[in-house]
Amino acid sequence: MPVSIQVTTRSRNQMKDITGDVQKAIAEAGASDGLCTIYVPHTTAGVTINEGADPAVCQDILDKLEDLVPPNAGYRHMEGNADSHVKASLMGSSASVMVENGRLVLGTWQKIFFCEFDGPRTRKVYVSVSG
Amino acid sequence: MPVSIQVTTRSRNQMKDITGDVQKAIAEAGASDGLCTIYVPHTTAGVTINEGADPAVCQDILDKLEDLVPPNAGYRHMEGNADSHVKASLMGSSASVMVENGRLVLGTWQKIFFCEFDGPRTRKVYVSVSG
Amino acid sequence: MPVSIQVTTRSRNQMKDITGDVQKAIAEAGASDGLCTIYVPHTTAGVTINEGADPAVCQDILDKLEDLVPPNAGYRHMEGNADSHVKASLMGSSASVMVENGRLVLGTWQKIFFCEFDGPRTRKVYVSVSG
């Protein structure tokens, strides 16, 4: 059964480190070994794994996505967030990480980032571990 | 064992809602709880999860991909579908969704879309649930 | 428990076919049926599944990524590999493939590619199968 995490974002585009929350959800689920899936049930947000040491990396990712998919650039969808939907699909709605002895098996520099593309909002993320 | 779904597309670029087919495959597999994987065994097609309410969203995604990766723009691959391969990797060949009590745990606006980039064709999608 | 594969790359940007290594890891793990996850624990590399028959396809993918995310284009991250991080998130840090009777269930033309964006380097990839 997935555990639900609440994520609060504070700008239109934001990558928020949720690694600690995901690790806590795994402990809560009592999972020891398996595959952890992080799932975003929204259509204008995504999830990605990248460097967490230098915050400039996330800013570069957000800036590049804004450059490739600028807002209000003649889209058909009339809610003003067509770019947010495109960015969500480029990042993807889920990420997978292995779990060993109850711990996420991440690389040295890796953190899990919730990718907000239509904030600020209060969002949900589901976490589950399959054996 | 994966269940196979047949998808028929009708244009070169198309996002086709396969949520109902995936849900049916889960019922067929008798799966109740776990992680559903939707897998596309083709190299010029992909899968993504995004908004299904307004069809303009899918059209915007397809248009933006066409804008970023236009066909016949000096590629090396000589079959006329190099752009289709690039688009497939940008969307990805699989999607993951949790299953609870036999139902896909999707967000309110989320639908699962088969992404055709070299149609029209008859395609295959595999669906499996791991516990 | 994930099996670790070593991947040696020979240029800054490279897509390296690791299908055989992944298949070997599955045999090593003694896995018969389930979902294979290929996970890249690096932040300037990713993984994708695409065509392996014509090497031009991989070159086109790398060229298009370089075109969309050129190196040294005014990024904030000062290590000279900001583009590598962005490309990694566009491809993704994991791929999922079903396993049946101990064999990867890939499409006719599909191969699994480690995507190097900051090589040459010696890298690691984790492979696991969940039931």
Which series of helices and strands of chain A comes N to C?
A: EEHEEHHEEEE
CATH superfamily of chain A: YjbQ-like
Straight-line distance between termini of chain A: 12 Å
Strand content of chain A: 35-45%
- What is the residue-averaged pLDDT of chain A? 97
At the first level of CATH, the class of chain A is Mainly Beta
Largest sheet of chain A: 5 strands, antiparallel
Sequence of strands across the biggest β-sheet of chain A? 1-8-3-5-6
Quaternary organisation: homotrimer
CATH topology of chain A, by name, is Jelly Rolls
Largest interface: A-B, 30 and 32 residues
Overall shape of chain A: globular
CATH architecture of chain A: Sandwich
Q: With helices defined by DSSP (H or I, 4 residues minimum), what is the helix count of chain A?
A: 3
- The total tally of domains of chain A equals 1
Number of strands of chain A: 8
Structural features, described:
The structure is a homotrimer of 131-residue chains. Chain A has 131 residues and is an alpha+beta fold. Chain A has one domain: YjbQ-like (Jelly Rolls). In chain A, 27% of the residues lie in helices and 37% in strands. Chain A is built from three helices and eight strands; from the N terminus they run E-E-H-E-E-H-H-E-E-E-E. Chain A has helices at residues 19-29, 55-68, 82-91; strands at 3-8, 14-17, 34-39, 45-51, 94-100, 103-104, 110-116, 122-130. A five-stranded antiparallel beta sheet of chain A has the order 1-8-3-5-6, covered by helices on one side. Chain A has a three-stranded antiparallel beta sheet with strand order 2-7-4, with helices on both faces. In chain A, a hairpin with a 2-residue loop joins strand 5 and strand 6. The radius of gyration of chain A is 15 Å and the shape is globular. The model of chain A has no long low-confidence stretch (mean pLDDT 97). Chains in contact: A-B, A-C, B-C. The B-C interface holds B 1-2, 35, 37, 39-43, 68-69, 75-79, 82, 85-86, 88-90, 92-94, 96, 126, 128, 130-131 and C 33-35, 48-51, 54, 56-57, 59-61, 63-64, 68, 90-92, 95-98, 100, 105-110, 130-131.
